[in-house]
């Protein structure tokens, strides 16, 4: 569907065939991101990976995050072989994930042994993902620093904000007058102070923590590039750290929230999942990652959740870099593209019983979310596809296995399951997910 929002042409893609055309056949043409005023204020002029325009700078910082840095190019040359988000690197943070998952399980045990057996799962999942991401990114948790959490929440909220001035340029003043830009600048400044202190702490070598974290690696690469005469800007380092915090936390937590909501609404599926997990790992055991490979139903349950509740339902917008044609329609240069994967995931021509939560559809099926099957692209696809797939699925699978392996869940008495969604960059349940949790 081709629309016009003010002065901007906007293409909304709602079929797997059109998504394939945009993210595979013409991936290069649509590899740009539109420029958004609010995002630019928050992310140092879009110096991060997710919102930076397509080009040499984006290629460099993305490869810094994803592939090893052994390029012959002068700009970002490095002797260190790092894969910040590569499978190998993600595996190296296994101990962090296992420790934090065990802490989450202990918190639940404490709650039912002390007062109430009703647990706020939404809060628990946000804390888990926040703690894992903070430890991997900066070597420590900030659970006690409430202001940081509030700032991050405001920051993520603004990332999903629709700014009328981006579409109707002569209305640019509206959000200046109503104070929005002022609030955004205040959040950006406070977050910058915080991230700067994290970076300085690393530079002074004051950080305690066993493993080399994301900030260590970025600073190491920065030092090497200063030596080779092509420095990475300080603001790029800070934008990349913010990308980690914002792209990883809410998306990963939202999957856990939706999967548990679906399981509470489908007790037979929950039972089937529990029996798979307990058969492989035993009852009330701390489940380690090596066991997950033997749990195909668990993986199918997570896939089915991503199909029905993709955390980023319109993907991150793309922009065409030149005039082109998509499925016979003329598309002008600088057209914004939103891919509606929520609709594609429920397309009757692609999925049997599309509105039903039915994980069995993924058993013995080769359909996967890695960007090759365009009927199922919760992480996007192509050049701009999500580099955090392994990171997110490792956290979610481990947490889910431990939850259903250790506990039984039901809805609190008198509570109805509310499956409505709240708007935002990552789509959460509109209401908090509460559950009665009892030992199995
Ligand atoms: C369930 C969790 C997650 C979901 C559903 C998700 C989804 C997405 C989507 C839809 C995109 C845009 C893809 C496109 O334009 O084709 C994206 C981009 C991105 N994601 Fe994720 N993501 C998740 C977790 C993560 C994690 C854990 C990280 C980092 C540790 C991460 C880092 C990024 C980055 C850096 C980009 C921008 C890539 C670029 O523009 O080159 N994501 N993600």
TrEMBL record:
Heme binds at residue 386. Its cofactor is heme. SUPFAM superfamilies: Cytochrome P450. The keyword Cell division does not apply. The keyword Heme applies. GO terms for molecular function: heme binding; iron ion binding; monooxygenase activity; oxidoreductase activity, acting on paired donors, with incorporation or reduction of molecular oxygen. Keywords: Heme, Iron, Metal-binding, Monooxygenase, Oxidoreductase. CDD domains: CYP71-like. It comes from the Eukaryota. Belongs to the cytochrome P450 family. This is Cytochrome P450, family 71, subfamily A protein. It comes from Actinidia chinensis var. chinensis.
